[in-house]
Design goal:
The complex is a heterodimer of chains A (289) and B (437). Chain A is of the alpha/beta class and 289 residues long. Helix content of chain A is 28%, strand content 11%. In chain A, strand 1, helix 1 (20-27) and strand 2 (36-39) form a beta-alpha-beta unit. Chain A is globular, with a radius of gyration of 20 Å. The mean pLDDT of chain A is 87. Chain B has 13 helices and 16 strands. Chain B has helices spanning 39-42, 51-54, 63-78, 84-115, 136-155, 175-210, 283-289, 296-309, 318-339, 388-391, 393-407, 416-428, 432-435, and strands at 2-7, 15-22, 25-33, 164-165, 168-169, 220-223, 237-240, 246-250, 259-262, 271-274, 279-280, 356-364, 367-376, 379-386, 408-409, 412-413. In chain B, a hairpin with a 2-residue loop joins strand 15 (408-409) and strand 16. In chain B, helix 4 (84-115) runs antiparallel to helix 5. The longest helix of chain B has 36 residues, at 175-210. Mean pLDDT of chain B is 93; it is low at 128-132. The chains are: A alpha/beta (289), B alpha+beta (437). The interface between A and B is large, with 67 and 77 residues.
């Protein structure tokens, strides 16, 4: 045990989220012998972050006042803060609740005895504290967790999901309408766009090894835009996806444009661009793994 | 009145326990879910076909169950029946989840309680198995990894699966991939059994030390697994009475006729009952409701359990041992399924989307899970998630009260109470993200 004390230490603060990021971290079991896990309520029975912790991983969005308190308190005690997963980076799926009619349903729930009070909407972690590194994905892969812990500067991945996918793009197979995300059989080895599916892997950052598109589900962009678009406004990114569909299909641009505004995509695609509207600077690509 | 508050760890999500004590008497024992996720609100207005990819995000621990329940609910709306191959692949997917979940609950959540450690990663490294040169933590994680690998094989993405689609699955499982998985399953099954034996022995020693298996009063049990053997891709819910007789069986669309639902002001999670009676879901319910496990090694463990504790068995710490039996079952059943061809044609049947209403049921590791959707103009008009942890809320609070009464007397509070609270809650393996969806 005394030897273990000398290992670098990390803690995991879980805000409001699904624990999928934590499950992915547990899947990356190589850290077990290399790091000392000092705080992570899902798997360790300690109730606070120790004050000499080196790395703090924060997962989940800031949804209630207890999240704000735990976040501010914990980040003061550590050397480095890593925002893990879509919810921590942008608020994630909970952003679907940021509509007038839905928000009213939420706030109607907030009348219970001494429970944490809900904020009007979900916030990203860096709305409250400085973040040193962003680890995108819903959730980030085990490989990314290891890279974040042991040396993000050495991490190499394909530039886009498209590059990692390798399905063949055909000029002559041109659908006239979108099939949406899923409908019926998928032909192996042929680009999903050629088959009429709404795949945004062409501009989503690589690093996931195309685990959705290879077995036949279109990319929904959970890793966010590639470095080429990450610091730009969302319209640039939209235009790029449009161009890819124009090159490979005869689907009317209107149809693509409408489909790109689906909730499923909006969960992920604006996780970096959202700041442009909010008056804050975009996250620098150097800070995103 | 004194209020005791216990923070909780080694469970999924954010929750705590509060007990009110007056003159050494436990007045109330509350299990409080302190977060609110809100999917039941913000999924309204979502294009129906996107549900199977969004709803796994309700919970990264139970994502597979939500994924499959969602697809089944939409198949019920569109009146499409998936081909046989798709059902088998979904079963593999659900078995992967079962292995991952039961290994997590057994080894990461509850094993540290057996020896008084704060986590699996802080347990004595002398436990390292000399032959295998692997610590208890590493072996436990390897067992758990088999579940993750099965989910990835049958579900694509490793946490939030994507391969089950309305009408079937996106692709089969290639022979080469199935063979690789079979090799790993064969290799790790004895390791899983050995770890479970260790766990069983630790549990017996703990019982001798603390003198109780916890709340052992009879209760109703609810599960949707099959009569003769477990089936997690299920279509019917059954209820067992405290005396071991079957009281009801019904399809998911009739759940309101049998189950009552209430909300409280002290928790963001609701609580349900069987016609006002305390019921229990999860592993012990399934084991009490099953005639056999249908696989050789799991049946041996089941006989050992029944021989020692009878059937139906009621002490709550048996939930943990039943998880071990299911872990062994899931290995054996996955081996059976993957030994057959899972790569032939007809992975999915075409369908025409239309408006309507549908129910999707699966037996999640924590019990029967129902997704209920109303679809109008292609969008979700209304949505309900009927969550297994909510079925267990009254049973958790009853068991907490039993623990409180044991350790709180007019003379004082035994410090063992804090540990007992953790053991009680973990026996039910509650999932707060799901319960507050």
């Amino acid at each position: 045990m005394s030897e273990k004390k000398t290992l670098p230490s990390f803690a995991v603060l879980q805000l409001s989220g699904c624990a999928g990021c934590e499950v992915s971290l547990i899947n990356a079991s190589e850290w077990v012998d290399k790091y000392q896990l000092v705080y992570m309520p899902l798997v360790v029975s300690t109730h606070t972050v120790p004050d000499d912790t080196e790395i703090l991983l924060v997962s989940g969005g800031v949804r209630n006042d207890e999240d704000v308190y735990n976040l501010r308190r914990s980040t003061e005690l550590v050397d480095q803060v890593i925002a893990v997963g879509t919810c921590a980076i942008s608020g994630g799926v909970a952003n679907l609740g940021d509509r007038d009619e839905v928000r009213a349903m939420f706030t109607a729930q907030d009348n219970r005895h001494h429970l944490p009070h809900l904020l009007p909407k979900s916030h990203p972690v860096d709305a409250f504290v400085d973040v040193d590194l962003y680890l995108p994905g819903c959730p980030p892969t085990p490989e990314l967790f290891m890279a974040a812990l042991s040396g993000p500067q050495d991490y190499q991945a394909g530039s886009t999901v498209c590059v990692e996918c390798g399905r063949e793009k055909l000029k002559e197979m041109r659908p006239k309408h979108l099939l949406g995300f899923q409908q019926g059989e998928v032909t192996p080895d042929i680009c999903l766009i050629n088959q009429g599916y709404l795949c945004v892997g062409s501009s989503t950052r690589g690093g996931c090894r195309a685990i959705c598109t290879i077995p036949g589900h279109p990319c929904v962009g959970c890793r966010g835009p590639s470095n080429a678009y990450i610091e730009k406004e969302s319209q640039v990114w939209f235009d790029r996806v449009q161009k890819v569909f124009e090159r490979l299909t005869d689907i009317p641009p209107d149809e693509i444009n409408r489909a790109l505004h689906s909730p499923q995509l909006s969960l992920f695609l604006f996780q970096f661009a959202d700041y442009l509207d909010g008056g804050r600077p975009p996250r620098l690509k150097e800070k995103v793994l | 009145m004194t209020t005791l508050r216990f923070p909780l760890s080694r469970i999924e999500g954010h929750a705590r326990v509060e007990m009110e004590v007056l003159d050494g008497q436990v007045k109330t024992a509350q299990f409080q879910a302190i977060e609110l996720r809100g999917f039941r609100f913000f999924m309204i207005g979502t294009p129906a076909e996107q549900m199977p990819v969004i709803v796994p995000r309700i919970c990264g621990v139970c994502s597979t169950a939500h994924h499959v329940a969602s697809v089944k609910a939409l198949e019920d709306v569109y009146q499409v029946t998936p081909p046989e191959l798709a059902s088998k692949i979904r079963e593999v997917l659900l078995l992967g989840q079962l292995i991952q979940n039961q290994a997590t609950s057994l080894f990461i959540f509850t094993m540290p309680d057996r020896v008084g450690a704060s986590s699996l990663f802080h347990m004595d490294q002398d436990e390292a198995n000399a032959e295998q040169q692997l610590s208890l933590a590493q072996r436990s994680l390897k067992i758990r990894q088999i579940g993750t690998d099965l989910i990835t094989l049958a579900g694509g993405q490793f946490i939030h699966p994507i391969k089950a689609v309305i009408g079937g699955v996106t692709s089969g499982i290639k022979r080469e991939a199935a063979d690789g998985m079979l090799k790993a399953l064969d290799e790790m099954l004895p390791v899983a059994c050995h770890l479970f034996d260790t766990y069983w022995d630790m549990s017996i020693s703990m019982k001798e030390r603390i003198g109780t298996w916890g709340d052992d009063q009879p209760a109703f049990y609810i599960a949707s697994t099959g009569r003769s053997h477990p089936s997690f891709n299920s279509d019917e819910i059954r209820v067992l009475g405290p005396d071991g007789t079957e009281r009801a069986s019904f399809p998911p669309r009739l759940f309101r006729s049998y189950l009552e639902y209430d909300e409280t002001e002290y928790s963001y999670a609701g609580q349900s009952s069987y016609q006002g009676q305390v019921m229990r879901a999860n592993s012990l319910a399934r084991v009490n409701l099953a005639l056999s496990m249908g696989t050789p090694l799991a049946d041996e463990y089941l006989q050992k359990l029944t021989h020692t504790f009878g059937k139906p068995a009621h002490p709550i710490l048996l939930f943990d041992l039943c998880r071990g039996i299911e872990l062994v079952y899931a290995f054996e059943r996955a081996i059976e399924l993957l030994s057959k061809d899972l790569d032939y044609e007809d992975t999915a049947i075409p369908y025409t989307p239309h408006d309507g209403e549908g129910y999707g049921l699966v037996e999640a590791p924590r019990g029967p899970l129902i997704h209920h959707y109303k679809v109008k103009d292609g969008l979700i008009e209304d949505v309900e998630f009927i969550i297994p942890t909510v079925h267990n809320m009254l049973a958790i609070e009853r068991a907490l009260k039993v623990a409180g009464e044991r350790y709180i007397t007019p003379a004082g509070i035994d410090l063992e109470l804090e540990k007992a609270v953790g053991r009680v809650v973990r026996a039910f393996d509650p999932c707060i993200a799901c319960a507050t969806q």
